[in-house]
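To assess whether ligand presence alters the predicted conformation, the chain was also submitted together with flavin-adenine dinucleotide. Input:
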Amino acid sequence: MTSFVETAHSLVERFAERAAEWDSTRTYCWPNVADLTEAGLMGMTIPVEWGGKGASYLEAVQVVEEIARACTLSARIVVEANMGAISAIMAYGTDQQRAIAAPLVLAGDKPAICITEPEAGSAATEMKTTARRRGDRYILNGTKHWITGGGISKLHLVFARVLDENGAEEGISGFVVVADPKNGSLPPGFEIVRHERTMGLCGMPEAELRFTDLEVSEDMLLKPPSGLRRGFADLMKAYNSQRVGAGTIAMGVAAGALEHAKRYLKERYQFGRPIGEFQGLQWMLADMDSSVHASRLLLQEAAKSANPFPDMFLAARAKAFASESAIKVVSDALQIFGARGYGDAEPLERMYRDVRMFTIGGGTAQILKTQMAGHLLGIKTPQGRTGYAPSKSTEGG
Ligand SMILES: Cc1cc2nc3c(=O)[nH]c(=O)nc-3n(C[C@H](O)[C@H](O)[C@H](O)COP(=O)(O)OP(=O)(O)OC[C@H]3O[C@@H](n4cnc5c(N)ncnc54)[C@H](O)[C@@H]3O)c2cc1C
């Protein structure tokens, strides 16, 4: 039987050929989505009883690495179709919510997770978006920004402060909000305000969303096991899988850059010798290899810890390390290429722009290290001046 990673491998040559095109034209790679869907890699972690393959996070990260070597954009799609919003819905959702979410992802939809707001980035629990109960519905109002997939995603997990009929707060949770299955239009009150122009990952829309009296049925409220009051912490546990996935994309890009560097070190001659004979570059190569390998081990260890989600500390450590070290690896690979690395005839400049994101999105390296320190010292690490500390696993975005 063909393994998931073998299936992924069969796609990468095709993905690599057009990666520069999606970047330069800033378009979403729909043909790759069709290939990933047909190959069963969209929603591969969805349980078999819901139509998925029941793949483990370890299998998913192996696929993500393989694809990220060739096309960062496609790797992001695989992560978000297997880890993150979809994981939270499959773990904590009702059967009704699962029955809506699973078929969408299995048919090729990349879900959008909507947490970050203009005034609530790392301090995610300071979000202002509200969902106020009115009868059997909730009315959502607020703004989200930097939402990956805004404008192309059909399935959205929208986080909001949940208020009762009288406006009293019950906690923070997510709402499953979907586009019209017939015509793909967003529900009334759900507006895509604008798209960001990013330095890398250019084919992926990053959108600002506005909700104005958006009506959502009470059935679409995600009720995490700890209840609404402490539910955001549960949902952030689900997000640990997305963090491991994001770190793996960074590592996969670095692994791809390392391969390019090895090729060029043998190919390029200066001073009458292949540049790979210069010790300064040999040591650079050795360090690059060590970084990629260490990242892979940390990420796979975190993926294997899933029960049902990866451990918070292992996920934070793996993502912080992999994302920071990948930037250095790709930068060194670009350096090895000299001027050619800086031009777009080689993929290094694109990979460098792409990989820069991963210390920011999905929890910055600083926030992840703060979480790690709290765990290592066995203390809470309040960041607010008043000493108010959201519980250890609530920082994110
Ligand atoms: C390409 C991209 C895609 C994204 N996709 C999504 C998405 O799909 N959904 C979503 O909800 N969000 C998304 N985000 C948002 C992302 O999660 C946030 O950017 C992130 O949480 C950081 O928030 P911020 O950008 O507002 O930075 P800020 O929180 O304003 O931080 C600014 C700087 O201060 C540092 N900092 C902040 N607080 C502390 C502290 N206590 N200690 C030390 N340093 C600190 C940060 O590390 C950072 O360097 C995306 C971001 C990017 C770039």
